[in-house]
Amino acid sequence: MNEGKLHAIEYLKSGDRKLGRNDYRGALADYTNAIMLRSDYAEAYFNRARAKQGLNDHDGAIADYTQAVALEPAHAKHYCFRGGVKSESMDYHGGIGDFTKAVELDPNYAAAYFNRAVAFLNIGRKIEAVADFLKAKEFGLRIPPHVWEQCT
Length: 152
What we know:
Blueprint: H1 3-20, H2 24-37, H3 42-54, H4 58-71, H5 76-88, H6 92-105, H7 110-122, H8 126-138, H9 145-150
């Protein structure tokens, strides 16, 4: 492994520690350094998106999740997290598209079903929401009672 890749991994690990302490700005800097050393580092883009999300930079987070998707299109989590930011930005249809892709890639991805159900609720599609909540429950997620109440 070349020296640049090793340094990129070190920056990633440092960023992960900072992200774990909610030091989003510090994590962002480390992930950016990792990407500068290794432009094909999907995990660095993914984690930088999480840091940007922590800083409420939704557009920046979506851009980085999109880059992670481009580099690793078979990873369901990239779509699920991007769908989450889209939903936070009230782009529920965009979020539903990403959550759908996530469950296509990983049919057992409980969080993707749950998040898609919430997005469905936000656009008034209760039947689809109930189906997805039941699927999430089947895969082990507990659905809070106040969420079920919204489905009635």
